[in-house]
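Ticket #159: bound-state structure for zinc ion.
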Amino acid sequence: MSSILSQSSCGVCQIHADPIQKERYEISRNGFWVVRHHPDPVPLPGWLLLDAYRHLGGSVDFNAEEAKAWGGAVQRASNLVQQLTACQRVYAIAFGEGARHLHLHLIPRVTTDPASEAWKIADLYRAVMGGKCAAAPPNAVEALVRQTRELWGGFGEAN
Ligand SMILES: [Zn+2]
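RESOLUTION: The complex was predicted; output attached.
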């Protein structure tokens, strides 16, 4: 696989390089990971993404340092979702199909909301993306991103 070709056509790499996306949604980045809010439209405020900084398809492609750092990064980003949303659980889903670049969806699961239970979250996602269901208000997402940037420092280094 040509990594140069993959990177130039990769949606996640393009988001990482886009100053507008960075200003609007990014929470943190270091040499291993990028933490960002899911871009609008998004079904739920507080739906975060934990991306590999490097262009790689998934955990099978981690180098030794990335493999060692992954657990701590997932836990810190999940803790952040929980603190932001007061959810009871945090779902973690990574397909890597829309972009073949690891982007772990960290989804707030509020147990009183039946529409977001288990695989129903996929139905909700499709309904929002298809315009059949209201997305989270963009101004609420923007405010949450600002709040999240302040909170992130309290979770230590993101690697
Ligand atoms: Zn990429």
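RESOLUTION NOTES: The two ends are 27 Å apart (CA to CA).
TICKET STATUS: resolved
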